[in-house]
Amino acid sequence: MNHKTDKFKNHNPNVATILSIIFAGLGQLYNRRFLKGTIFIILEVAFLITLLDSINFGLWGLRTLGTIPGTDHSIRLLVFGVLSLIATIILLALYVWNVIDARNQAKKIKDGWMPKGFKDTIIHFYDTAFPYLMTVPGLLLMIFVVIFPLIFSVLLAFTNYNLYNSPPRNLVEWIGFDNFKELVTVPIWQETFISVLAWTIVWTVVATTLQIAIGLFLALIVNDPRIRFKKLIRTILILPWAVPAFVTILIFSAMFNDDFGTINRDIIIPLIGGEGIPWLSEPIYARTAIIMIQTWLGFPFIFALFTGVLQSISKDWYEAADVDGGSRFQKFRYITFPHVLFATAPLLIMQYAQNFNNFNIIYLFNEGGPPVRNSNAGGTDILISWVYKLTFETNNYAMAAVISLIMGLIISGFAFYQFRQTKSFKEEGEL
Amino acid sequence: MNQKQKSKIEVTLMYLVIVITSIIIFYPLVWTVGMSLNQGTSLYSSSIIPENFSLEHYKWLFSEESDYLLWYKNSLIVSISVAAGSVIITSLVAYAFSRYQFVGKKNALYVFLLLQMFPVMMAMVALYIFLNMIGMLDTLTGLILVYLGGQIPFNAWLVKGYFDTIPRELDEAAKIDGAGHLRVFWSIMLPLAKPILAVVALFNFMMPLFDFLLPSIVLSSQDNYTLAVGLFNFINDRFANNFTRFAAGSILIAVPVATVYLFLQRYLISGLTAGGTKG
């Protein structure tokens, strides 16, 4: 046993490291891991023969976005480019891993560790590779439909891609921060952006807070011990959540119609008189209507959520408060409210984030309208529906990407808060 | 006595609030049912209580003229594939994240948390161009793949959170008895995680069914429409003529969905809170 260990005393980790940097797999061969080394070498050769050219082409495309108008399709080049970039990162990670693997193994051999037999190696390989094998299908899918599109959109913000400058006729170019400058300096963009952003914030805060407040209020009422038929009442109150939202929004849109909607025809005109309220054609009324509809759609979920939490608050707390002579308001303020908020905070934050991105209600209600003068967004357009219009109606892709990017930054704020809130993540941090 | 009276007034007020809320909830729903039973296709001449009761719109939906059944079928294909696919993919990912230590695990979790915040909208242009390049634009397969990939970040967290609550001793014991990785996953984790997997399946069944944005961008031919896009196009020319048909079509989708929801709402809530506070 002893002389075997001696044999490898001169085994040098640095040699293994350098060899595997020169060509993947050589370090493994030096470590006498012949199968592993061969696989690595075959992989690298295969890569050099097949992929290197296309990755090179992709990165070239990403850098230049094409050089010959009419022949080079800038946007296709951009797609290839982003995909090549992702591939490059993955390959680099593999290469680094190969080097680290060779080095660690060389160290172990130097310290007297003996490579196991072929079968054991396979089993060991399966054990370490298992979590990767499990995640690969999902990860690949995610790369293509989530990560790649996001990177692509971010890059688009720095180009001049729009209806008038689009391939194959023209070449798209990198223009740096010009789009951002245009957004804040050109009056029509600047005004539209500020008004849309302001409305988005008002919309998010008012609509979400309203639906949370009403949900909480109703949950408290229905949870009162003196109220009977609780089960029936709960079922009724949850109904709006159960009906598909796109259906209800379209129905509301018809109900609020200026001319023949039932709200004007059957409620406003008989009760108040006059010509009815221009729900769809005046921005201020359209906004009010949209907030009311969202409240109708959104409170049941909050209601159901809070009902569950309220039932879990221990009765001892309230009894203790009774002993101390606490008023009902004090009980709500110091026991119920903190308890409910603490248990549901991350979900409530999610509600705000969801309304911030609530494309469905804005678009389906009135397609973001009514139109506003001196603005290229409608009266109820929030950022996301404006992006949709810029993309699919006026084909101003670059500007749409700029606004998406700004939205992304705002969303990251929500995400950051969520990071700190999530309990299991804190636990994960200790691992 | 005074105390009793006060309590009575309070209870009455509370019932009043509940009654008013119920009226607000039922009004649009009843109105839609009424519309769908009206004769003729115009909103102008329709009223909540139809003068001439008729089932003509329901009959029309099932007739040769309309694509309604086709859209229904498309929606079901998409929803069932996404529900089944997401359960498989997410549970595999969540298993790896819950039970194994591997390089990049923590960063991946960060990325997942960040990604679930971003709206699909931001990726729309890229998805459109990409699907076009690989020839999957205007196909249900393309739509399904986008849904499958997009749901991973959120649901992986949800399922991971649940897996974390299953005692590790169980799978360690099974491993000592000689069970392999997949065997532990299949015979221990999956059966124990049934409740959360049911929630994932349900979410991912409902989400494509209700979604309007993505199918309206990906699908362009009438034959491939899902229900949301199809119904929207019924009334796209601004309620001019087809609203009563739309109402009938909506009811035929809303009734089964609402029934399922009301039966399962308790599980939905518990699933969400599990994801929100634990995961």
Automatic annotation (TrEMBL), chain A:
It is a multi-pass membrane protein. InterPro entries: MetI-like, MetI-like_sf. Keywords: Cell membrane, Membrane, Sugar transport, Transmembrane, Transmembrane helix, Transport. It is found in: Cell membrane. It holds the Pfam family BPD_transp_1. PROSITE patterns: ABC_TM1. Belongs to the binding-protein-dependent transport system permease family. MalFG subfamily. PANTHER family: MALTOSE/MALTODEXTRIN TRANSPORT SYSTEM PERMEASE PROTEIN MALF, MALTOSE_MALTODEXTRIN TRANSPORT SYSTEM PERMEASE PROTEIN MALF. Part of the ABC transporter complex MalEFGK involved in maltose/maltodextrin import. Probably responsible for the translocation of the substrate across the membrane. This is Maltose/maltodextrin transport system permease protein. It comes from Gracilibacillus ureilyticus. The lineage of its organism: Bacteria, Bacillati, Bacillota, Bacilli, Bacillales.
Automatic annotation (TrEMBL), chain B:
One of its GO terms (molecular function) is ABC-type maltose transporter activity. It is a multi-pass membrane protein. The chain crosses the membrane at residues 12-34, 76-97, 109-131, 143-163, 184-206, 246-264. It is found in: Cell membrane. It comes from the Bacteria. GO terms for biological process: maltodextrin transmembrane transport. Keywords: Cell membrane, Membrane, Sugar transport, Transmembrane, Transmembrane helix, Transport. Gene3D superfamilies: MetI-like. Residues 72-264 form the ABC transmembrane type-1 domain. GO terms for cellular component: plasma membrane. Belongs to the binding-protein-dependent transport system permease family. This is Carbohydrate ABC transporter membrane protein 2, CUT1 family (TC 3.A.1.1.-). The lineage of its organism: Bacteria, Bacillati, Bacillota, Bacilli, Bacillales.
